Amino acid sequence: MQAAEQQQGLPRRRDYTDELLKAFPGSQVVNPEGSVVDIPFQLPSGRVTALRISLPAHFPHERPVLCVLVPLQHRAVDPTGRLHVRGVDQWGARSSDHLLPQRGGIPAGVTPRDLVGVVREAFEVLLGEAAAKQGLLGESAATGSGGVDSADGSVGRKGRDGHVISLAGGMGGGQVVYGGGSSGPTDPAALLEGMPAAKLLQLLEDEEELKKVAGSWLKDTPAARALEDVRRQNCTAAEDNLALARSIEEARGHVAIVRSGEYAAMRALFEGLYSRQEAVVAKMGTAKLLARLREEADKSDAAADELLERFQEGSLPIEAFVEQYVAAREAFHITDLKRQAAEHSMLH
Q1: By C-alpha distance, which of 276, 275, 335, 281 is closest to 303?
Q2: Confidence at residue 39, expressed as pLDDT on a 0 to 100 scale
Q3: What 8-state DSSP symbol labels residue 183?
Q4: One domain for residues 199 and 101
Q5: Which of 40, 260, 281, 294 has CB 3.0 to 4.6 Å from 285, enough for a Cys bridge?
Q6: What is the total count of domains within the chain?
């Protein structure tokens, strides 16, 4: 739509916004598209309100909408706050000789100054002579109160969203640039709409230039900033890991030095202790103890047999035989039980 208007020499919706900002220094752009403008003023009662001018999507082929933000009882204001004046009702009729064929012959071609005239008519209807006292009816310089002059003669204002709206070169450039500090608009549609027609045509014809503009816009998006933060964090983590790796290598070097210096002494100590353990096991190991038990059991059994032979020969009295034989057999059975227990433990 904007491109069609440019090709036919018609002003863009942004041009109407620029003209309002120039004519009413205290005005503010409400949205990034520049289609809604608030102009503050004071009611006769002393209460401060604002006149909101909304430019529809097909403006200037559609009428602008004027509303008073604070409810007001006035013959020209309906219950919804919408303001009805002759300039709005007759919008487009004053230049009916300019027709757009693709719009079905709807009158178009109303200039930005005509919109300013409609707004001034609205203030005159609302305030009467008070409108002139508030400077709402006369010509105002674009750099009046509420504006910010730049070095190149452009004018800047702050919208309600905190963005700075720069009127680059006034009506000649017809460009409104939004900025929030160092970053541009996050809406690509707003970025493209703020460009002049020549720049847009260049982007359509030059792919490299389009890539540059797209890259410049992408750098200022929240996703790009988040990605850059992640990259910085990864770099920091990588540097920390490299520093830790160097520390680990140094620790390994110290361990190697300690091992090389103490290895021989530790090995000699280990071999001495191992030899001592082998000697103890050789004397008091399980196999050795089992052999001793078997030997003792055999001795006890042999002693009992010898006592029996002596008794049978008549060389040992019966009283002594009974006492000694019982003791010998008791010793044998105790030793034999120990032997059996040792053999059982070795098997399991």
Answers
A1: 335
A2: 92
A3: B
A4: yes
A5: 281
A6: 2
Same-domain status, 324 and 215: no
CA-to-CA distance for 108 and 113, rounded, in angstroms? 14
DSSP, residue by residue, 272-310: HHHHHHHHHHHHHSHHHHHHHHHHHHHHHHHHHHHHHHH
Task: Estimate the share of the chain in helix, then strand, then coil, as percent rounded to the nearest 5.
Answer: 60, 15, 30
The C-alpha angle with vertex 221 and arms to 217 and 227, in degrees rounded to 5, equals 120
Q: What's the CA gap between 259 and 252, in Å, rounded?
A: 10
* Pair of tokens at residue 336: 């034999």
Residues of the chain under the 70 pLDDT cut: 1-10, 93-109, 138-191, 193, 220, 261, 348
Contact 22, 171 (CB under 8 A): yes
Q: Which two tokens stand for residue 92?
A: 């487009």
Provide the pLDDT for residue 37. 93
- HSE at residue 66, side-chain half, CA atoms within 13 A, is 24
Domain that holds residue 333: 285-347
Any domain includes 226? no
In angstroms, the Cα distances linking 85 to 76, 141, 235, 340 are: 7, 25, 64, 124
Q: Angle at the Cα of 329 (from 325 to 334), degrees rounded to 5?
A: 150
Task: Specify whether 59 is located in the same domain as 186.
Answer: yes
Q: Do 52 and 152 lie in a common domain? A: yes
**CA–CA separation, 167 vs 181, rounded Å?**
16
318 within domain boundaries: yes
DSSP for residue 11: P
> Which of 36, 77, 32 lies closest to 53, judged by CA?
36
Give the C-alpha separation, 301 to 305, whole Å.
6
| Cα distances (angstroms) measured from residue 115 to each of 55, 112, 304, 305 | 10, 5, 140, 142
- The helix (run of H) or strand (run of E) holding residue 179 is strand 175-179
Q: What is the pLDDT of residue 96?
A: 41
Q: Give the DSSP H or E segment for 208.
A: helix 207-219
Tell me, yes or no, whether 254 lies in a domain.
Answer: no
Q: How many CA atoms lie within 13 A of 269 on its CB side?
A: 5
* Helix (H/G/I), strand (E/B), else coil: 8: coil
